[in-house]
Amino acid sequence: MKVSIIIAGVNPQFIQIILDSLLNQSLQPFEVIISEDGVKPEMEKLIEAYQLKVKFRLIHLSEPHQGFRISYIRNKAAAIAKGDFFIFSDGDLFLHKRFVEDYTKAMDKGVAFIGTRSFVEKSYTSKILSGKKAPNSVPITRLEKNTINAIRIPGVHKFLPSISYPEDKRGGLISVHREDFFAINGYNEAFKGWGREDTDFVCRLFYHRVEIRKLKFAGLTYHLWHPIESREYLNKNDSILQDTIKNRLVFCELGVSGHLNK
Predict the structure, then answer these.
(1) CB 167 within 8 A of CB 77
(2) Which of 3, 134, 174, 176 has the CA that lies 20 to 30 A from 203?
(3) What is the DSSP letter of 226?
(4) 64 vs 36: CA distance, rounded Å
């Protein structure tokens, strides 16, 4: 089983912590693709340095910044990914040392696993960034939200029911088989700005009869503090999502197909 981890990134400091957390995985992925929203020389230098350290295939894609286009940069990376399974993650999440191991044990074709995150407080985020290394763990007292998601109890997710109502679930941290991803044409690039593209993705997988499950108490991630993104496009994005839900849409027109064979 080959696993491709696709990370949508914009902040080189955050990506350094993420790559450091990938160096220490109990099970290495097949490849990691950093899909950058913007073109920063420091990001290129950082990834070139890590390409000499890592044991997996490490690829860097960059696209000139034209607003928040996370669907676009995820699809661009997925179009070249070689793994049997994709794990999509955000560029503000660093990974527990057993993240890849936990996901690899759980993943199956026809099943998508939504991950969880705990939120690191601002002062401890600054400490992590200044040290330029991912900590082995984050003290519960230095988490500001979702502290229960920092507890690892492998295997518990097997006893939890699958999700029957996906319309309020977020899929920014999610695993999916490549065939299921391409069957719905990936993420919908009609979404501009922050919000709802990940819920739309989960809904369309569900309508395609992919089982949606939570990988609870495993595959842990830690969210680095940063200012909240602008919500200026949220109303428009809500409308696109509601159309998907109302019509139980599976396939999106503006998807990963636009990046294939380029």
Answers:
(1) no
(2) 3
(3) -
(4) 9
pTM score: 0.95
For the chain, report the end-to-end CA distance as a whole number of angstroms.
26
- Per-residue pLDDT of 117-162, as tens digits, reads 999 999 999 999 999 999 988 999 999 999 999 999 999 999 999 9
Give the tokens for residue 213: 């499950």
DSSP string, 110-173: TEEEE---EEE-HHHHHHHHHHTS--S---GGGEEE-GGGG---TTGGGGSPPPS-GGG---SS
Single-letter amino acid code for the residue at 139: P
> In total, how many domains does the chain have?
1
Q: Which residues of 200-217 are buried (b: 16+ CB within 10 A; e: fewer)?
A: bbbbbbbbbebebbbbbb
CATH number of the domain where residue 86 is located = 3.90.550.10
Instruction: Report the pLDDT averaged over residues 231-242.
Output: 91
